[in-house]
Amino acid sequence: MADSGKYQFAFNLDLNGSEYLGFVPLGKETHTKLESSWASPGFTGAFLPEPRNVNKTGFTAEWNVLYLNRNFPQQWTSYDSHEVTSSAYGVELIFTVDHYQKATRSAKYAVMFLFLTFLVFFITEIVNKSRIHPVQYLLIGIALIIFYSLLISLSEYVGFNLAYVIASIANISLITGYALSIVKNQKAGLSIGAFLLALYGFLFVLLQLEDLSLLIGSIGLFIILAIVMRVSRKIDWYSPLGTKNTD
Asked: What is the DSSP secondary structure assignment for residue 243, as one 8-state letter?
């Protein structure tokens, strides 16, 4: 029987620890079909798959490359040199929100956390007519920063979600206990703790989102600003200790 020159083969491939799978089209016609349960692929290389389908359960992709479309001939002598990898194509297995990316995203909110926490302590200081020393503000700021160090270090061993719960509970407990000791008002101290709990809970929800994080974050910040403005609307800011305006 004459050799048709066509060879078909298929195999299942288990990838463990790999981020990219690539192919080089060496045949006159190279047809590649991939199916996977990975829900966040990135198609890269000289050729893009057509057709392709990506959903929450995985993806399917097909490439059909002719030898006329690549940058090297079908055959050449040993005196010629061709870079065949320049025509490679494949798929990259993307981690959309791994624990390092979540930690990086959470760190981007650090300035907002510092500002809002200091603002709450400042309003508490004004309303309760109690002095909070700049050194005490500094210690609170250091506690807020250490949260991110705890989060990253713990997430390498117990996963991001559990690390976030542990780090946030530890940080909220520390700051709330410190607030109770410096403002000398149980209601005010517990209110600060409740605010921090809501703030860390809000950030946790944002970190789980991918497409709606910007929208939800903007709405959340608007609501927080509205609450702060409402709470502080009767404070007389020209008074040294911020007496409330009775009007």
From this structure: P
Q: Are strands 89-93 and 41-45 parallel, antiparallel or unpaired?
A: antiparallel
The one-letter amino acid at 114: L
CA torsion 183-185-188-194 (nearest 10°) is 100
- In the three-class reduction of DSSP (H, G, I as helix; E, B as strand; rest coil), residue 64 is classed as strand
Angle at 96 between CA 94 and CA 98, to 5 degrees: 100
Q: What is the pLDDT along the chain (247 residues), one digit of tens a residue?
A: 455 566 677 777 776 667 788 888 888 888 888 888 888 888 888 888 888 888 888 899 998 888 777 777 777 776 667 778 788 888 988 776 666 777 777 777 788 888 888 888 888 888 777 788 889 889 988 998 888 888 888 888 888 889 889 999 999 999 999 988 888 888 888 888 888 898 888 888 887 776 677 788 788 878 888 887 887 777 776 765 555 555 5
Measured over the CA atoms of residue 162, residue 112, residue 98 and residue 55, the dihedral's sign is positive
Q: Name the strand (E) or helix (H) holding 220.
A: helix 213-231
Q: Give alpha helix (H) positions in the chain.
A: 99-107, 110-127, 134-158, 160-183, 186-208, 213-231
Give the DSSP H/E element, type plus range, for residue 30. Answer: strand 29-36
Residue 42 neighbours by CB under 8 Å, 6+ apart:
91, 92, 93, 94
The number of beta carbons lying within 10 Å of the beta carbon of residue 75 is: 7
Residue spans of beta strands (DSSP E) within 67-207? 89-93
- CB-based burial of residue 247 (10 Å sphere; 0-12 exposed, 13-18 middle, 19+ buried)? exposed
pTM for this predicted structure: 0.60
DSSP summary character for residue 86: G
